[in-house]
Amino acid sequence: MKVLLVPNYSREPAMEGARKLEDWLDDQGVECAWAPDKKLFPDRVADIDGADLVVSLGGDGTLLRAARMVAYSETPLMGISYGHLGFLTCGGPEDLISNVAAALAGEMHSSHRATLSITVEFEGDDGTTETKHRFALNDLALTHGARGDMIVFDVSVSGHHIDRLRGDGFVVSTATGSTGYALAAGGPIVTPEFSGMVCVPVAPHTIMARAFLTSPSDVVELEISPERRADRLFFADGQPLGDAKHGVRATVRRGPGDIILLDHSEQSFYESVSRVFYGEAGK
């Protein structure tokens, strides 16, 4: 068996946990690999080939990084919380060894999380075009640039034009991402079993625009209107996509594979919702 560790290298407790887990895995005869430090080796790719389990040690941001490594491969992913909230993680440092042992024994609950396949088109000053493809577990976000100008864009779903909106942007999220940027923009909390997309306008300049849900087979398209060439930014799971001034169109559909997120039970999502959004997490 092989386990890939994805620690938050900037948090010493997470690094201590990763070293502790590596020693335990070695004692069990399990191969252990480490994802590279993103700051020191930004272009180095993690060795996920042959991994039976990926363990994230950090907060939800670290887990999203691990999810990008897993992408559509459906390699099981487990998060151990060394962050503040740990909404997507299944336990803290005190549960590190027991949770990993249970995962390797096949005793953890598998939550299938829908992903996004994102295509963004760019136009250069010389009229040339470029297309970039990205994975996301949480969301694609369209936002205004550093100047803060209002942006104008069209929203379509599966070829049907919904509206031309003016505002700060738009979020297309999975059910997993519904508790992130989409929630902050006024969207609903959605159960992980929902496999469509959650579409949320960000500060629209109208009282008519509201969040809506799509079917799993729908395709959402955001196209920048040529009538207002303000700076605008595209982000996939918080990571910027290309040049702010030249992104003109984003197409979002359900990804070809899910993220298999390990937790304790089918009720783990609701327990996390209660703890983070209604409980004592902020105290």
Entry keywords:
single chain; Tumour Suppressor Smad4; 2 domains; six-stranded antiparallel sheet; 5 helices; 18 strands
Would you give an account of this structure?
The structure is a single chain. 18% of the residues lie in helices and 36% in strands. The chain has helices at residues 12-27, 60-70, 96-104, 181-184, 268-278; strands spanning 2-7, 31-34, 53-58, 77-81, 109-113, 116-123, 129-136, 139-144, 151-157, 160-167, 169-173, 198-202, 212-213, 219-224, 232-236, 239-241, 247-254, 259-263. The chain has a six-stranded antiparallel β-sheet. Helix 1 links the parallel strand 1 (2-7) and strand 2 (31-34).
What would you say about this model in short?
This protein has 283 residues and is α+β, with helices and mostly antiparallel strands. It has five helices and 18 strands. It has helices at residues 12-27, 60-70, 96-104, 181-184, 268-278; strands at 2-7, 31-34, 53-58, 77-81, 109-113, 116-123, 129-136, 139-144, 151-157, 160-167, 169-173, 198-202, 212-213, 219-224, 232-236, 239-241, 247-254, 259-263.
* CATH architectural name of the largest domain: Sandwich
- Mind describing the biggest β-sheet? 6 strands, antiparallel
Oligomer: single chain
Quick one: CATH class of the largest domain? Mainly Beta
Q: What sequence of helices (H) and strands (E) makes up the elements?
A: EHEEHEHEEEEEEEHEEEEEEEH
Q: How do the strands and helices of this protein lay out in sequence?
A:
Layout: E1 2-7, H1 12-27, E2 31-34, E3 53-58, H2 60-70, E4 77-81, H3 96-104, E5 109-113, E6 116-123, E7 129-136, E8 139-144, E9 151-157, E10 160-167, E11 169-173, H4 181-184, E12 198-202, E13 212-213, E14 219-224, E15 232-236, E16 239-241, E17 247-254, E18 259-263, H5 268-278
